[in-house]
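My current task is to audit a protein record that another person submitted. I have pasted the whole thing underneath without changing anything:
***
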Amino acid sequence: MTTNGDAASFGPNAPGYEWKSTAEVDPVEVSPGITVQPLWRGANGAKAAITTIAAGAVWAGEDLHDPGPEEVYVVSGVFNDGVNDYAAGTFLHAPAGSWHVPQSAEGCVLFLFYPEG
């Protein structure tokens, strides 16, 4: 493959290319038994994080998706949104203005992405 320009400006060396190990980020407890590890924040407010919900933990109140949607990927365990269970490997899109009550009977790890902050 041929590219135009300096090879350092493409791929993993491109400006803005970032990476972070979860081992580098201390978990922050946001609700009893629920921790968040922020991984990335974009200039427009977009952000990505790992959330861990301990077995039996329930978010205190409704988790409102504002100002934008929430994208959830269940990495391990079983996530419950207050109504339905979602096993590892499930992707959820929660539109802006929607809400749920995050919880897990057995515990779970989630990858969260907020495209609009």
Observations:
- DSSP finds no helices and nine strands in the chain.
- The chain has a mean pLDDT of 91.
